[in-house]
Design goal:
single chain, about 250 residues, mainly alpha, three-stranded antiparallel sheet, 3 strands
Length: about 250
């Protein structure tokens, strides 16, 4: 076990891409150290596991994600933070022994976090949460493993702890979509109103328009056209920014 304490923690530099098998091997090592009762070595092994996540370029399966949650829970339990360990062990679906009626087992059994919220879809690719293609993240009180894939390539891997926000990723800006859609509607409405004003000038009337009436109709027509141009420009900006978000 002394030899394990001397293993350098050099994985954080991310010198090369890492795969699910690499992560599994590091986690197996951490579990073996935990079982041997070496808290300091276990903490060091967990630092190595955590430092590897940014370098993982392969989708992580659901079972491995569950193992990772449990290890995070045991890390906190070993540090005397049993309360903090509860959401991790619950997320890892830890099953205590049948005769285990201790406070930690009871707390995990009674754990009932609130429901989660939908994550906006990325403009390209898809998301994996705990190894599964879903867009409903766990509640803010729960941890989860976040991955974003473009094609078969993982572009982001991050462990999100309770209370943390998910990593930034290019997502559909729903407000821009709404603003652009409203702008399209307003522009169309103003153009229709301007056309109606123009048509009014060409209608046959028993009494010809006076010059003041003509000026008033023309002024309304110009105002509507200016308004349509302005809303059209704002709509173009909204959709332009939305388009740029695809490149971010």
């Amino acid at each position: 076990m002394l030899l394990l304490l001397l293993i350098p923690s050099a994985l954080g530099a991310c010198p090369e891409p890492l795969y699910q098998g690499d992560l599994q091997a590091a986690m197996d090592l951490a579990e073996d150290i935990r079982s041997s009762g070496e808290p300091a070595a276990f903490e060091a092994a967990m630092r190595d596991v955590e430092s590897m996540l940014d370098c993982v370029v392969e989708p992580v399966g659901p079972e491995l994600a569950l193992d990772l949650h449990r290890l995070q829970g045991w890390k906190r339990q070993a540090a005397g933070q049993s309360t903090d360990a509860v959401p991790y062990l619950a997320a890892g679906e830890w099953q205590p022994a049948e005769d285990d009626d201790g406070p930690l087992a009871k707390a995990v059994h009674d754990w009932a976090p609130s429901s989660g919220a939908s994550l906006p879809p990325p403009v390209r690719g898809r998301m994996l949460l705990d190894g599964q293609s879903v867009d409903l993240r766990p509640s803010p009180a729960e941890p989860y493993l976040f991955q974003r894939l473009v094609g078969d390539r993982v572009t982001t891997t991050a462990y999100v702890h309770p209370g943390e926000r998910p990593p930034r990723y290019p997502r559909l800006r729903r407000r821009l979509v709404v603003a652009g859609s409203v702008g399209v509607g307003l522009t169309a409405g103003l153009l229709v109103a301007a056309d109606q004003e123009r048509r009014q000038l060409t209608r046959d009337r028993a009494v010809p328009y006076t010059q003041d009436e003509l000026d008033a109709v023309q002024a309304r027509n110009h105002g509507l056209l200016i308004g349509a141009t302005a809303t059209g420009a704002l709509t173009g900006v909204s959709f332009g920014v939305l388009g740029l978000s695809y490149l971010w």
